[in-house]
Each structure stands twice: as C-alpha cells, then as structure tokens.
Design goal:
Elements: H1 4-9, H2 18-24, E1 32-44, H3 49-54, E2 66-79, E3 85-95, E4 98-109, E5 114-119, E6 125-134, E7 137-149, E8 152-155, E9 162-171, E10 176-185, E11 189-204
Antiparallel strand pairs: 1-2, 1-11, 2-3, 3-4, 4-5, 5-6, 6-7, 7-8, 7-9, 9-10, 10-11
Length: 223
Amino acid sequence: MTGVYERALGSAVDDLHPKVRDRYGLGPDDAYATVGRGTMDITRGTLALPVLYAMPLRNLLFPESGTDVPFSVTTVGFRDPAGYEALTTRREFEFDGTVRQFDSLTVWDDQRERLFDFLGTGGHVVSELHPRVDDGALVVEGGKQWTRIGGRYLPTPGPLAVDVTVRDRYDEADERFYVTATVESGLAGHILGYRGSFTQERRAMEVVPTDLKPTTGIDPLPP
C-alpha cells in the first residue's frame, strides 16, 4: 500500500471506488500531483463569523459563502524530514477575485497507527482523523483535537471542539468527483460547509515545492 489513507483504512481500501482510491493513494514516491477543478456551493454560520474572518491569515477557513464558487484542489504526497509519510491537500475558492486557500497536511503515525490532520499554515490546529468506506466513497470524520504551540499539544476542551465530516465519491455517469464537507460546533452550530463537484488530472511533480509543505517540524506527533 501507498498513501496515508490506504494505511489507515487497511483492507477496507479495496472497497473504495478505484478513482477515489487513486485520488487518496498518493505516496512519497509518486512523481506527480493531482489537480481538480470545479465549483462549490458554500454555506457558513453567523455565530462563528468573527473567528472565520481571522482564519484566512493562516490558510484555514474563511467567512465568505456563495453558489457555484470556482474551486480547485491540489494533492501531493511526500515524506516529512522526520520520516513521516504525509499528504498535502490545498483547496482554493475564488470569490469575485478574492482567493481563499485552505491547506491541510495529513500524516500517518506508523507506530500507533493513527492519522492526523495539521490544518493551515504552520499546523497550529491538529485533529485526529477517522476514515471509513461507505458504498465506494471515502468518509472522513474528525476525532480528538489539539492546539499546537511551540511543539506542544494542548487538548481542545470538549465544548470548544468541532465536528468535521468529509465525504468524497466518484460518479461514473458524469465522470466527476463529488465532495461534501461540514464543520459544526456544539456551541456555535453550523460553522462552514461546502458541496460540489470537480474533474481531476495529474500534473508531473518530481520535487514537491516548499509552498506545498504548509507545516514543518511536526515531530513529535500528538500524544
């Protein structure tokens, strides 16, 4: 197996649609990135709006919403300097000339067989990930969460944690990927969601550029 999601799913990876498996199966030895382009419908809540306005500074979430928003997603696998297998996912949403970027670095902990997401530039928000397969689609749900400061991991108190769910599937009829993502909070309710579709192609990439490594120095991983 190659790719952090394949390692986390184990034998269940065989139940993924082949296109979805290829999309998430990028490993450090693959000399290419995948690039998807399409549109998204984006919703956001109101209670968390002040926080959302600050998040674009770190390429996290954003305050805008809209329909048929131009969208692109770039995914590439590599090995972190500490030896961890990693996958960068860069999502870009264009709102009337303003481009919002949402980055994540997904890392496999081989020793304890856990999957982590380091979110935004610098990876100061960290979440445990729990992937599963549902009718050929990849469904990913968040678990324990931390704030990462100076190499230390501060657990996020339960009331402040968010519920994240992402579903990614492939439709044979129109040859497109369909993704649905939601971020919810017990305190603030709906924070952000996006839903839409895209096509995907491969782009040769012998060396992963620095800007596609949004988080460095991740050793040690969360406890």
